[in-house]
TrEMBL record:
Encoding gene per record: tpiA
Name of the protein in question: Triosephosphate isomerase
Domain of life: Bacteria
Annotated function: Involved in the gluconeogenesis. Catalyzes stereospecifically the conversion of dihydroxyacetone phosphate (DHAP) to D-glyceraldehyde-3-phosphate (G3P).
GO cellular component, one term: cytosol
Taxonomic path: Bacteria, Pseudomonadati, Pseudomonadota, Gammaproteobacteria, Salinisphaerales
Length: 251
């Protein structure tokens, strides 16, 4: 099966109204020449503005988190999936390592959020990945197997069919130290095989993105991996130029 490449940006807690507008204008220009799926996940408050700016393109807007609560109610500060969908989001990042580490998100919460995304018609981009200590202790596969096991046990089948997975080794995030193309491909193949143990058809169609210091100059080597279906890009997605150059690295 040939999977279409997918490049998603994650702005994290960065950006401004001016940056959203400039990014939108640049992508309206560039999008017709980009032959891959694209999404940019911005802070909640900019989702609607970005979605409007990108309306005429195939570039989707997305958010970086959502509440695990589906129905409206007394959850001060929370934002549910329907609100995001109403503002034009089509994707939402779920279980980013920064949320797992800094905000105590467990595997169970990640499952609940992936389910909440699907319930609202959003595509969850579910992040998994090991820390440096875990890699050095040769624990990478165990950690990933645990994170994937939580998803295959906890999620509905329709969720696993629709989701995007992102492998983001924590030691490569924001460090300038990307995984090598060989490291990325070997982990992606392992991730796909874990999913295949559960359901081979879903494993075959599942997009698995790599994230961690993806830049215009390492993107095409990473994308050469047979199981690397694109990228989840942090820092280099903040500027339209570098984001577009990464998308152009798709062969
Ligand atoms: O965490 C990431 C994307 O979600 C990766 O961030 P960087 O591309 O800045 O390393």
């Amino acid at each position: 099966m040939t999977r279409r490449k997918f490049i998603a940006g994650n702005w994290k807690m960065n950006g401004s109204v001016g940056q959203v507008d400039a990014f939108g204008r640049a992508l309206v220009e560039a999008a017709p020449s980009l032959d891959c799926d694209l999404a940019v996940c911005v802070p909640f408050v900019y989702v609607e503005r970005l979605a409007r700016a990108l309306e005429s393109t195939h570039v989707a807007a997305g958010a970086q988190d959502l509440s695990s609560e589906v129905d409206p109610g007394a959850f001060t500060g929370e934002i549910n999936g329907s609100m995001l969908a109403e503002c034009g989001a089509r994707y939402v990042v779920v279980g980013h390592s920064e949320r797992r580490e800094m905000f105590g998100e467990t595997d169970d919460i990640v499952v609940a959020k992936a389910e909440a995304a699907i319930a609202a018609g959003l595509t969850p981009i579910v992040c998994i990945g090991e820390s440096l200590e875990q890699r050095e202790a040769d624990e990478t596969e165990n950690v990933l197997a645990r994170q994937i096991g939580a998803l295959t046990r906890g999620c509905e089948r329709r969720t696993l069919e629709a989701m995007v997975l992102a492998y983001e080794p924590i030691w490569a995030i924001g460090t300038g130290r990307s995984a090598t193309p060989e490291q990325a491909q070997s982990v992606h193949a392992f991730v796909r095989s874990q999913i295949a143990n559960w359901d081979a058809t879903i494993a075959d169609s599942l997009p698995i993105l790599y994230g961690g210091s993806v830049k215009p100059d390492n993107a095409s080597a990473l994308f050469a991996g047979a199981d690397v279906d694109g990228a989840l890009v942090g820092g280099a997605s903040l500027k339209a130029d570098s984001f577009v150059d990464i998308a152009r690295a798709v062969i």
